[in-house]
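Q: I have two molecules that I believe assemble together. Could you output structure tokens for the complex as a whole instead of separate predictions?
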Amino acid sequence: MNPIIAFVTGLTAGGLSCLAVQAGLLTTSIGDQAKDDIEEELRDAKPEPTTEPGHYERGHEFIREVRLLKASGLRHKRYAQALQALKYRYPKVYVVPEVASEPKKTKLHTLQPVTLFLTARLAAYTALGFLLGWVGTALQLTPYTRAALLIVIGIFMLGTALRMLNVHPIFRHFVIEPPKKVTRYMRKKAKNDGVHKLTPIVLGSLTVLIPCGITQVMMAAAIATGNPLAGATIMFAFILGTSPIFFVLAFLTTRLEGKLQSSFLKLVGVIILVLSLVSINGGLNLAGSPLSLNSIQQSINDRFGSADKTTAENSTPPVDVNGEKAPTQSPTASSVQSSDATGDVLKLTASSASYSPGVIKASANKAHKLEITSKDNGGCGRAFTIPSLGKQEILPENGVTTIDIPPQQTGKMRMTCAMGMYNAVIEFS
Amino acid sequence: MTTKTFKVPDMDCTACVMHLEGIEDKLNGIEMIDANYRKQRMVVDYDEAEVSEQDIITAVKKEGYTAVPMQESED
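A: Yes, here they are, computed for all two components at once.
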């Protein structure tokens, strides 16, 4: 996956999706002690302040005892006696209100913990990306295992998308739930540590344990790179993309409303659905399957191409300078003119957006050299693969790479990037 | 101590599990909440003397969800 795609995904869907999972930890980091008012609402018997500047009250313990007493079922005189005893046990104490002139936290005070939280989160996920990329390397991914991995990841993403779109309860199994012990520990830690300076760093790092759905997808993509640095880059780009929305949250200290969150998840579902299809298609491409979109498109092109050819031959046969009939070409093959179709050197240009030409014609049963010219090739197109030869080559950003192609029988040989996104074909005839 | 199961049909993701289980820190009298996204339900261990079923439903509503008490036979 291209780091830019990872970044944009983080910036859009990822940010809000992660926010839904990790917002609680962030607000704790800020030290925003916005107290939950559930308990307050239930304390209907809270005594009103009587005098200023201070007032008398019996405190929470008394309120709890009264509630217990009410629940005990005692009536009339006995209830009154018990209540009197409680009042005796918890005499009113004079409570001095907080000094009003105490300086209030300004928004700037939230900047430091938020920055610490987000930096720790970024560092932790980048390290995780590195680790996942290394795991991918350890798996010794050949083009075909990578293809299988891409398809499996694609299916997981598809399941995640259908779960988010609430298509069927069965898709609820497509989720990786962090162990209860972990979430409970994190909640307690967030609650007890309060606003300690290290808290944002610890909590920011701990977010790796509760990745949201789309982060899990990115983690899978990091494994699929099979390269620690590429894995780290993807996670870094993605988490960096998610950070602005966390920053906004820190300043607004609001949380997504239930309904809004629900409809937002649907949007994320659609985005993941598209990504899943891209991943599955990438896997199919890498495996050289005729079911991939590119293969289907090419066979359609071939058919239309041959149809065009027939029409061209029937109407105005092109003639070369010697008056002989010039060879006609299909539209797909017309772009091949720059490549050396008859010689030993086949030329391909790899940019960060595509491999061109899409089709190179070459003679069968003859050895060739494939000369790949990289031009500003910064994306995953650098990971050049010829699955049928088991060949993988990391291309430079700019420069020429030569690959020996042994004699091949008549047919097509697919070339693709490691993620199956960019494709080209050599047609041996 | 009472154990009660609630159906929470509007859980969308595992984050909801964390939100719901967080109620145990906010409401006195709750011993433990075990929410399950796949089953769309949560099991609450609570002290009836301190907190009522209605209190729990209110707390869940405040988190943005709907808790519907389940009958034993529904389990």
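A: One point stands out. The longest strand of chain B covers residues 30-36.
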